[in-house]
């Protein structure tokens, strides 16, 4: 039996995860990053950028349902949504399920990620790129939020880790631009790493976001291929009540939206804002 090729993730020093590679669908250096999409028997198609897993067909629904439904149902009346990053198209797919949303802008720095994920990860976008409410902008998210005149109700930073082009999406410059790009009552959320292994990212984001937003916290979910425990999602708004909705209110909005999810439900929404004590202690220190 031939030895299968393996792909090693290089996000952390000293330990990590590997994937057997059954078939490489695409591997190239784009204008911004090393992009690989390959097939793995256990997880389906896998996409990685600069040696870090971005998404797998098998577990992506957890991440995308949580980064969309929690802010959108908490807001309750989101009409204009901005996605930063999100090149694989699954965040867009989940936002388009909300029929009350009227306009969706996605700002992705790397056109090649969009092109090759449309081709090789079709289940991620699932036709969402053809939604008439959708507008794609190829730009650095930092530039966009600091120059755009438009305002949004929810901003979702579906970014890579703070390496390479993703570094700018964890800066005060970016957070200030997002603050200025939100309507009254707006909510900002962002992928903010696995807090057991990337605790500094959460502490730094919390400190920087707190310069601009009155209410900054996190919510969480465990996504298997973002290994090491729960992933924290940064949450920022000017109204603390938005992250303290009771399950009944969330349930009513969930039912009205007619959503059909595989991970998200109103009880998970409400419970996801409970954080481990070690993180709470780190945020207070
Ligand atoms: N779910 C993944 C995670 O949690 O790491 C993120 C997935 S998505 C593929 C990340 C996207 O962010 C990529 O398409 C990447 O090209 C994009 N990106 C990185 N830096 C960016 C920037 N400064 N502005 C806009 N998009 C950026």
Automatic annotation (TrEMBL):
<feature type="active site" description="Proton acceptor">
    <location>
        <position position="158"/>
    </location>
</feature>
<keyword id="KW-0745">Spermidine biosynthesis</keyword>
<feature type="binding site">
    <location>
        <position position="88"/>
    </location>
    <ligand>
        <name>spermidine</name>
    </ligand>
</feature>
<dbReference type="GO" id="GO:0004766">
    <property type="term" value="F:spermidine synthase activity"/>
</dbReference>
<dbReference type="InterPro" id="IPR037163">
    <property type="entry name" value="Spermidine_synt_N_sf"/>
</dbReference>
<feature type="binding site">
    <location>
        <position position="33"/>
    </location>
    <ligand>
        <name>S-methyl-5'-thioadenosine</name>
    </ligand>
</feature>
<comment type="function">
    <text>Catalyzes the irreversible transfer of a propylamine group from the amino donor S-adenosylmethioninamine (decarboxy-AdoMet) to putrescine (1,4-diaminobutane) to yield spermidine.</text>
</comment>
<comment type="pathway">
    <text>Amine and polyamine biosynthesis; spermidine biosynthesis; spermidine from putrescine: step 1/1.</text>
</comment>
<comment type="similarity">
    <text>Belongs to the spermidine/spermine synthase family.</text>
</comment>
<dbReference type="InterPro" id="IPR030374">
    <property type="entry name" value="PABS"/>
</dbReference>
<dbReference type="InterPro" id="IPR001045">
    <property type="entry name" value="Spermi_synthase"/>
</dbReference>
<dbReference type="GO" id="GO:0008295">
    <property type="term" value="P:spermidine biosynthetic process"/>
</dbReference>
<feature type="binding site">
    <location>
        <position position="165"/>
    </location>
    <ligand>
        <name>S-methyl-5'-thioadenosine</name>
    </ligand>
</feature>
<dbReference type="GO" id="GO:0005829">
    <property type="term" value="C:cytosol"/>
</dbReference>
<protein>
    <recommendedName>
        <fullName>Polyamine aminopropyltransferase</fullName>
        <ecNumber>2.5.1.16</ecNumber>
    </recommendedName>
</protein>
<keyword id="KW-0808">Transferase</keyword>
<feature type="binding site">
    <location>
        <begin position="158"/>
        <end position="161"/>
    </location>
    <ligand>
        <name>spermidine</name>
    </ligand>
</feature>
<feature type="binding site">
    <location>
        <position position="108"/>
    </location>
    <ligand>
        <name>S-methyl-5'-thioadenosine</name>
    </ligand>
</feature>
<feature type="binding site">
    <location>
        <begin position="140"/>
        <end position="141"/>
    </location>
    <ligand>
        <name>S-methyl-5'-thioadenosine</name>
    </ligand>
</feature>
<dbReference type="Pfam" id="PF01564">
    <property type="entry name" value="Spermine_synth"/>
</dbReference>
<keyword id="KW-0963">Cytoplasm</keyword>
<dbReference type="InterPro" id="IPR030373">
    <property type="entry name" value="PABS_CS"/>
</dbReference>
<feature type="domain" description="PABS">
    <location>
        <begin position="5"/>
        <end position="238"/>
    </location>
</feature>
<dbReference type="Pfam" id="PF17284">
    <property type="entry name" value="Spermine_synt_N"/>
</dbReference>
<feature type="binding site">
    <location>
        <position position="64"/>
    </location>
    <ligand>
        <name>spermidine</name>
    </ligand>
</feature>
<comment type="subunit">
    <text>Homodimer or homotetramer.</text>
</comment>
<dbReference type="InterPro" id="IPR035246">
    <property type="entry name" value="Spermidine_synt_N"/>
</dbReference>
<dbReference type="InterPro" id="IPR029063">
    <property type="entry name" value="SAM-dependent_MTases_sf"/>
</dbReference>
<keyword id="KW-0620">Polyamine biosynthesis</keyword>
């Amino acid at each position: 039996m031939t030895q299968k090729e393996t792909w090693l993730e290089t996000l952390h020093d000293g330990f990590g995860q590997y994937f057997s590679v059954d078939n490489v669908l695409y591997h190239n250096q784009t204008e911004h990053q090393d992009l690989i999409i390959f097939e793995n028997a256990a997880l389906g198609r896998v996409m990685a950028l600069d040696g870090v897993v971005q998404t797998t067909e098998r577990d992506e629904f957890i991440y995308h349902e949580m980064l969309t439904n929690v802010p959108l149902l908490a807001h309750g009346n989101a009409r204009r949504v901005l996605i930063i990053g999100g090149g694989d198209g699954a965040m867009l797919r989940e936002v388009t399920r909300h029929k009350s949303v009227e306009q969706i802008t996605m700002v992705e720095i790397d056109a090649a990620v969009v092109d090759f994920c449309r081709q090789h990860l079709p289940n991620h976008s699932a036709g969402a790129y053809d939604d008439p409410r959708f507008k794609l902008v190829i730009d650095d998210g930092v530039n966009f939020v600091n120059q755009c005149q438009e305002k949004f109700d929810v901003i979702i930073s579906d970014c890579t880790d703070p390496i390479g082009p993703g570094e700018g999406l964890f800066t005060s410059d970016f957070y200030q631009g997002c603050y200025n790009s939100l309507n009254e009552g707006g909510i900002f959320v962002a992928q903010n790493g696995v807090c057991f292994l990337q605790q500094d990212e959460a502490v730094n984001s919390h400190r920087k976001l707190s310069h601009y937003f009155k209410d900054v916290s996190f919510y969480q979910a465990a996504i298997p291929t973002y290994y090491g425990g729960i992933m924290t999602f940064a949450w920022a708004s000017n109204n603390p009540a938005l992250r303290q909705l009771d399950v009944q209110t969330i349930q009513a909005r969930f039912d009205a939206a007619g959503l059909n999810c595989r991970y998200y439900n109103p009880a998970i929404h409400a419970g996801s804002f409970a954080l481990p004590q070690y993180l709470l202690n780190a945020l207070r220190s």
